[in-house]
Write a structure and sequence with these properties.
Elements lengths: L1 H15 L19 E7 L4 E8 L7 E6 L11 H5 L2 H4 L6 E5 L22 H17 L1 E11 L1 H12 L4 E7 L10 H11 L5 H4 L23 E6 L19 H25 L6 E6 L7 H20 L1
Parallel strand pairs: 3-4, 3-5, 5-6, 6-7, 7-8
Antiparallel strand pairs: 1-2, 2-4
Helix pairs in contact: 1-6, 1-8
């Protein structure tokens, strides 16, 4: 079994240099999306961070859901807004939603050093202290019922944040993430993905496998999620609704297939290993969706987000 896993890992590493999880193929006017874009100052990063915020409405203090973007997250928008309708879906749900822009290649973590290309990344501090403080002051977030979700790179990050801050987050969802950070293959794949964005991965968590790599591995810190709501999903890599990924289709795209299928195969391998690990953690309220189809793309993640809302976030944040 280990040999089979290693073969899949190698495929994932090779494909990592072409990560497309945050790629943008369309643009949407700002006014078309629900909520407002506001600029939240981060003292840790020394700059204003644009955040799309969907208010949960007036009245009593509200829970908050944080949605993180993928590897190629743009600085002035989010793939969630460009490629899905989850913003309008969340209107009227009684939950504040915060969607930060930027963070491409950062894994939404606190880097050890400022990177010449990716700059000063202190996303963990921003997401667990600075942005929640803003949400409490302006949107009456209770900072007690919090959840975080992400896809691909940020699926890994969401599980890491929830594991490192179990008293802050009640629920977490990973769509096509890679939560086995220090395992052979995945470790190299994460480093390659950071380099693909122009960053130096040693500036993030130090020289692997040393530094703080193990402290940021959701697989190793899974015990911290005891009693939490967790949702994990991945597909096979082939999206039956996306003709570009179906061999033999008139619209088959060999380049997209070569990029996206190995990514989802690797995500499926990592997610399955992580699910097996969570099975040994007491009290985890785990929901999974490991499907025989499903590409490494937004149509799949949009569906999985909506499913996770009903199965995981809604019961956790009530």
């Amino acid at each position: 079994m280990f040999k089979r896993v290693r073969k899949r890992l190698v495929a994932g590493v090779v494909a990592a240099v072409a990560l497309t999880s945050g790629a943008v193929v369309a643009t949407a006017p700002d006014a078309a999306a629900a909520g407002t874009t506001e600029y939240v100052y981060s003292a840790a990063m020394g700059r204003n961070v644009p955040v799309r915020i969907i208010s949960g409405g007036g009245g009593a203090a509200k829970p908050t859901l944080y949605l993180l973007d993928g590897l190629r997250a743009p600085a002035n928008n989010s793939g969630w807004l460009i490629n899905t309708n989850v913003d309008s879906f969340m209107v009227g749900k009684g939950v504040n939603v915060a969607i930060p822009f930027g963070g491409g290649g950062s894994f939404y973590t606190d880097w050890q050093r400022t990177d010449p290309k990716l700059g000063k990344n202190k996303w963990e501090t921003f997401l667990t202290r600075e942005l929640p403080g803003y949400m409490k002051r302006k949107y009456n977030s209770d900072n007690r019922r919090n959840a975080v979700a992400g896809l691909s790179m940020s699926g890994t990050a969401a599980l890491n944040l929830a594991s490192r801050h179990p008293s802050f987050y009640k629920a977490v969802a990973s769509y096509s993430g890679y939560p086995t950070v220090t395992m052979p293959g995945f470790n190299q794949g994460i480093q390659v993905s950071v380099m693909e964005m122009g960053g130096d991965p040693t500036n993030m968590w130090g020289i692997a496998p040393f530094g703080t790599w193990t402290a940021n591995d959701p697989f190793l810190t899974a015990n911290n999620l005891a009693g939490h709501y967790v949702y994990v999903s991945s597909g096979s890599g082939v999206g039956n609704r996306n003709a570009a990924l179906v061999p033999g289709s008139a619209n088959f795209d060999a380049v997209k297939f070569a990029q996206m299928v190995p990514l989802e195969v690797a995500a499926s391998t990592s997610s399955r290993l992580y699910i097996a690990r969570l099975a040994a953690v007491p009290g985890v309220k785990l929901k999974t969706h490991i499907s025989p189809d499903g590409g490494h793309w937004w149509d799949y993640w949009q569906d999985r987000f909506k499913e996770s809302w009903y199965t995981t976030f809604k019961p956790a944040l009530r």
